[in-house]
Description:
mainly alpha, 2 domains, globular
Amino acid sequence: MEQAFKDFTIRVILAVMNQKKCPILHPLIWLNPVNIESLTHGSTNTKAFQKLARKEPNFKTAITSLAKHYSDYIKYPSAATIMQCKEELESIGEGKWMGVFFDGLQRQPSI
């Protein structure tokens, strides 16, 4: 589950970062791995991830931290989880990714 959620997190971040090239329509379109134009199609996703990984060497570590803490937070919301995520990201010099974490929290569906 953790690896699947981490992979999903990467796909969502890539989709949001590439909004201008590939407008985000319905998730069934841009998350469909069969759709060659989607950011989740095997080759497109791999190329986009490799390009971002070259540009951002700590991206994989940052995503692992974001996915773990986001998953923890939605199960048991606490300020401590947010602070742990912030501290982990800052310790690798990637504090800028906290915006992604907060975006995810703000876009959570209401229950």
